[in-house]
Amino acid sequence: MAGRLALVTGGNGDIGTAVCAALASAGYRVVTTCVDPEAEGIAEWQAQMRQQGHEVAYVVCNVADHDACVRMAEEVEREHGAVDVLVNLAGITRDTFLHKMKSEDWQAVLDVNLDSVFNVTRQFINGMRERGFGRVVNVASVNGQTGQFGQANYSASKAGMHGFTMALAKEGARKGITANTVSPGYVETSMTGKIAEEVRQQIVAQIPAGRMARPDEIARVIAFLAADESAFINGANIPVNGAQFCSF
Ligand code: CAA
Q1: N- or C-end of the chain: fewer Cβ atoms within 10 A?
Q2: 246 domain-assigned
Q3: 48 within a domain of the structure (yes/no)
């Protein structure tokens, strides 16, 4: 992996931090996107990563904005070189029952979670095809597989990600490109931290493992899929959910 470049969208979030650390530990050069470096405290975040021995660069980009992604890709390629591994991780929730959901709640979630996957992947796919190597890992959710109360928008966006993955897997297979989805269950993050305590307890009670996942338990699967050696795993959806949802 030495020298390969990995781009992680939203890599400074809770799962993202673990993903950046896992990839950096495996020898990748790593770049994350962020939207507002000051508000997100990116310099402090980089310093914390550095203390753990990881040098992670950042690029400013709202991945919901196609033109911003075009500019971001130019900057990444100019500053860091060709992207070999792309982890589409940036995502948001706007949980509310459908009968209360506003058009903005739907659109914001679809834009950030699903349109971003097109916006970002589109910028790097030609380069991957030309070089005959690429790894695209899309981070979806157990709730894209099962649906969830209050998440018509989020569940639709995450299910859509896997449709994209399967199509790209077929298109890229002869070009050395793999595309896979990782579907985490509930993970200890600021996103799940927003769930009301009562509802949270109800959710944890439905997880046979009896707990939520740690971010590093998701990151290790993403790093595994990113590896050169994972060349024949393509178009798969890997659930990481503590047996909350079992399927085949
Ligand atoms: N299972 C069963 N019943 C549920 C339920 C659930 N998961 N969620 C809500 N309900 C039921 C409630 O028990 C309640 O029933 P009664 O009317 O009989 O009392 C009814 O639905 C209304 O619930 P609320 O009072 O909570 O209604 P609300 O409008 O205030 O909130 C909600 C609704 C937004 C769905 C809220 O319940 C909620 O936030 N649920 C959690 C949604 C969730 O799991 N989000 C995941 C966020 S993390 C993430 O998305 C990461 C990932 O990939 C996993």
Answers
A1: C
A2: no
A3: yes
Cα(149) to centroid(ligand 1), Å: 5
Domain encompassing residue 57: 5-238
Indicate the pTM of the whole model. 0.97
Domain-embedded: residue 97: yes
Name the strands in the sheet holding 56-60, side by side, starting at the edge strand that comes first in the sequence: 56-60, 29-34, 5-8, 85-88, 134-139, 177-184, 237-240
Choose one of 149, 214, 217 to mutate for the ligand 1 pocket test, by most ligand atoms within 8 angstroms of C-beta: 149
CATH of the domain at 204: 3.40.50.720
Is 215 close to ligand 1, i.e. is its CB under 6 Å away?
Answer: no
Cβ 231 under 6 angstroms from ligand 1? no
C-alpha 224, offset from chain centre: 14
The residue whose C-alpha atom lies closest to atom 32 belonging to ligand 1 is: 150
Asked whether residue 216 is domain-assigned, the answer is yes
Which DSSP string do the residues of 142-205 spell out, in sequence order? HHHHH--TT-HHHHHHHHHHHHHHHHHHHHHGGGTEEEEEEEE--BSSHHHHTS-HHHHHHHHT
Instruction: Give the total number of structural domains in the chain.
Output: 1
pLDDT digits (tens, 9 = 90+) for 31-70: 999 999 999 999 999 999 999 999 999 999 999 999 999 9
Per-block mean pLDDT, blocks of 10 residues, the chain (248 long)? 91 98 98 98 98 98 98 98 98 98 98 99 98 98 98 98 98 98 97 95 97 98 98 98 96
